[in-house]
Amino acid sequence: MAQEDVFKKLVAHCKEYGFVFQSSEIYDGLGAVYDYAQNGVELKNNIKKYWWDSMVLLHENVVGIDSAIFMHPTTWKASGHVDAFNDPLIDNKDSKKRYRADVLVEDLIQKFEEKINKEVTKAKKRFGEAFDEAQFRETNPRVLANQKKIDEVHTRFAKALNDNDLEDLRQIIVDYEIACPISGTKNWTDVRQFNLMFSTEMGSTADGAQKIYLRPETAQGIFVNYLNVQKTGRMKLPFGIAQIGKAFRNEIVARQFIFRMREFEQMEMQFFVRPGEEMKWFEYWKEARLRWHKSLGMGEEKYRYHDHEKLAHYANAATDIEFKMPFGFKEVEGIHSRTDFDLSQHQEFSGKKIQYFDPELNKSYVPYVVETSIGVDRMFLSIMAGAYNEEEVEGKDGKKETRVVLNLPPVLAPIKLAVMPLVKKDGLPEKARAIIDELKFDFNCQYDEKDSIGKRYRRQDAIGTPFCVTVDHQALEDDTVTIRYRDTMEQERVKIADLQGIIGKKVSMREAFKNL
Question: Most C-beta atoms within 10 A of its C-beta, which of 24, 225, 353, 430?
């Protein structure tokens, strides 16, 4: 199945099974704004808890805060967002559609990469086990031709971004004949910068109102509170401050479902270190964060690093962790060495001393910062994309049927356990309810008695429930039930008293953290 079709099915699945709804859908929706439904909010909360506990519980030198969305407007002047938080945009004169120029070029590079991958796939089928992929990539004329194009575009693209050369950025689009996906034409405007911050006013009267911004990132709330946390927590360098919160960006080219939204949530940790030690900690967090992602068992081959071509104005090193989405490898988390830019800027603009006294060196200085920043919504999408699976299984009368299953990591699954009475009589519903009443303090459980047992299994597969328990007449006699495992569809007879231990071990964050 084409990856584009997989993505369409995934988006439809998210609505049909109560994960994600279009915001204000009864009013035809609001572009690039989404609501998390009953199963989606559970999965999202589990992702946030898995991140928070892995940061704050497992690191005694990392603490958390929750800063306000509204901040003093000078904050954003000091951080550089007022002057430099821009995207390069270009319009197609025929379709009247607006695009990010850098994304158009990135998509072009990805098309060349896809052509190479197709050649490799065809060769694998042709040569079988004797196929030497490395040699093929180094010698095949079509692969080399496409790789040359990638290198040429890559070099020009990186230079244009670093030089902020909007004219050459447009020229790349023209030279490689990139067409508008809507009109199919190459009739482009000039590239220009567009600031992404939402602004509003605070005050009781029009004359006394103050222009403020909805925060475009949560990091600045950590930086302006750095000294408060350090002093009240008696923190010694190195130490980190973690935060989960909403951020807002006026994305003109919002697309790909919840991958790029105007209202989104971030999980960020700023790690404060001695100047000169930032690269050591940059490498540490780069490896630690990739290990965190891989611990979820979505497949190690689905992750990769991507070093930034253009560094932000505050950074001296930056790497993305990318996940293989249905629309290609895309960023889910960024690790950045932010130097002392943010704290120095806030020190200058506020006039307040924001320094750390180092007792070992017997001097004060502005710490350097290493940041880990992960988008909750992108993480959610990567988990859903990695878990969505269609497989053929044997149905009634030996006929093949398709099973749609979300192979969610059990620790993140919205519903951990579904309890199902075989029939709606003979005391079985009461027995099933009693099991839920016992286990609901430990797990998010769901009672399900509608339809045949097979349909109920399929329904739970589709929302990613890792365990289903069927209560039959034997349960009334010996307190045993049948537990079904989602991924293997195997069934096992177990004692009701053992359910807590069986399920608890599989869905425990404690057990999952051991993989870190």
Answer: 225
